[in-house]
Amino acid sequence: MSGHRLSTQVGQLARRSALRTLRQPAQIVPALVFPMFLLAVNSGGLRETTNLPGFPTDSYLTFALAVPFVQGALFSVMNSGTDLARDIETGFLDRLALTPLRGAALLSGLLAGAVMLGLVQAATYLTVGLVAGAELVTGVPGALVIVALSVSVTVAFGTIGLFAALRTGSGEAVQSLFPVFFVFLFISAMALPLDLIQTDWFRSVATVNPVTYLLEAFRSLLFEGWEPGALALGFGIAAAVLAVGMAAASRALKTRLVRT
Amino acid sequence: MAAPLANGIEVEGLVREFKNGPRAVDGIDLTVEPGEIYGFLGPNGAGKSTTVLMLTTLLPPTAGTARVAGFDIVAEGPRVRASIGAALQEAALDPLLTAREHMRLQTALHGIGKAERRERGQELLERVGLSEAADRKVGGFSGGMKRRLDLALALAHRPRILFLDEPTTGLDIQSRTALWEEVARLAAEEGVTVFLTTQYLEEADALAGRVGIIDHGHIVAGGTPATLKAEIGRPTVEAVPRDQGDRERLAAVLARFGPSSGASPRGAAARLEGGEAQLAEVVRALDAEGIAIETLQLHAPSLDDVFLAKTGRSLEGAGEAEEEVKVAAEAVEA
């Protein structure tokens, strides 16, 4: 197949994925509202935490603003997976399978919705946070990197949704993953920096939890300045999740699409 | 196997066995000639859709061979898919996209050039009567509109062979007739070979040049509808007594003219060994026995009779018999 045809396939499926996302406010609104609600509750209720010796900033809002970017990405697991599961359940995937569609084009195209959602989420969270008084010490370039990291994490998590959909073929099964992923967020350095967590087991779990390092990458841009190590770790984790998720989804797609 | 049919379908000993289940398709043989409409008739669960999935390359066969458009369904899947169009059992559409967006996606995925996509999409939407609804989301379409869009999508890349899996199930008679006309036109004017599965007898009768009847994964009969019905040959007379207390006597009288046949719960029926000419004798016998009749019908042999004769069962949801002669009850009142 020519590169032109492959790009046409990816483009058309990306267009469909983006249209589907835009036409389902029920996908966009919770992904915007719930993280902002949690941000408001946490930054209000835990404001005094900044008085702890060694807390890295005097604005808990700025500290907590990293959380919505990761929390919003979790919605991507559900949204991209549910869309694909619906295609399987309705037979739309069979329709696509009867065309000369390549598996890579299908998966890439489906993630376009996640890219769109990631962009909207990142812009919204950042705007709301800054308007509410959060810091952004890296300025406009930092804002752009935050958006890029947010989209990367959203797309990476989206591949896990695709894998789950292809393995189970069920929208309900995909949605049941959401609370599981949410637990990962809570057992990370979501509420406190790693070195201020006093409970040993919690600190140990949060230390090995990759979500902690995604949060630290966002935080570095918000209140620490340019930290190449933190950024490399954040983007590296997103890339690793993307690679593993895509490989697993591609494998599951081959099993699901048993066309000869 | 002889020289492959470029636009036809050749199947030999095709089998599909599912894990821990029976053989859904158990060694079927069939040939569909180029440009022919072939009706694949059978009840739910007979193996029709499994056969279609195998022939469209979406399900590998367990055993046997098949060539579609001259290509082996296992070894040459992509070439088979390039030659066929398919509207599978459920109209698989995206409720959030418009009909025009569906056409754009389908034509693009089939590699149709950008310049031609819009024209081809519009042409097909007009052909299936959806040009006015082209920019509406499919979620608001009726069942008939979805089926027509499904057909248009199957035709996007000008396939030589079209698979239609129960295309009119659940449609009203008007939508069904419109779809039949389009399918018949495709075969007659464009030479498209059509493989049509259905559980509607009248659909197979109205459209198909030849019919294969499948039951429990086996083809139990095959031929033109006329040939198959001629094999059965004898019409059936069915009567309903005015007084339900006379039902057993009625059955006994009808039994004099031939073996009993399926009838409504309120009546009795018999296949007339002597053909239609015996109808007058039946009326006279009922009159002589003093049995008042509410309705009397003569059914010409139908494909359901063929199915009944071959399997011992009636097709679920069987269509109405082709020809009915209703005799007013008054005419045979005692």
Overview of the structural elements:
The complex is a heterodimer of chains A (260) and B (334). Chain A is built from twelve helices and no strands. Chain A has 260 residues and is mostly helical. Chain A has one domain. The longest helix of chain A has 30 residues. Chain A is elongated and about 65 Å long. The two termini of chain A are 17 Å apart. The mean pLDDT of chain A is 91. Helices cover 34% and strands 24% of the residues of chain B. The longest helix of chain B is centred in the middle third of the chain and has 18 residues. Chain B has two domains: 215 residues, P-loop containing nucleotide triphosphate hydrolases (Rossmann fold), CATH 3.40.50.300; 103 residues, 2-Layer Sandwich (Alpha-Beta Plaits), CATH 3.30.70. The C terminus of chain B is likely disordered. At the A-B interface, helix 1 and helix 5 of A face helix 2, strand 6 and helix 3 of B.
Give the overall average pLDDT of chain B: 86
Instruction: Give the count of structural domains of chain B.
Output: 2
- What about the largest sheet of chain B? 6 strands, mixed
Q: Radius of gyration of chain B, Cα only, in angstroms?
A: 23 Å
Low-confidence sequence ranges of chain B: 317-334
Counting structural domains of chain A, the number is: 1
The appropriate CATH architecture of the largest domain in chain B is: 3-Layer(aba) Sandwich
Greatest chain-chain interface? A-B, 27 and 34 residues
Structural class of chain B: alpha/beta
Task: List segments of chain A where confidence is low: pLDDT < 50 over at least 5 consecutive residues.
Answer: none
- Mean pLDDT over the residues of chain A: 91
What is the number of helical segments of chain B per DSSP (H or I, 4+ residues)? 11
Oligomer state equals heterodimer
Main β-sheet description of chain A: none
The CATH topology label of the largest domain in chain B is Rossmann fold
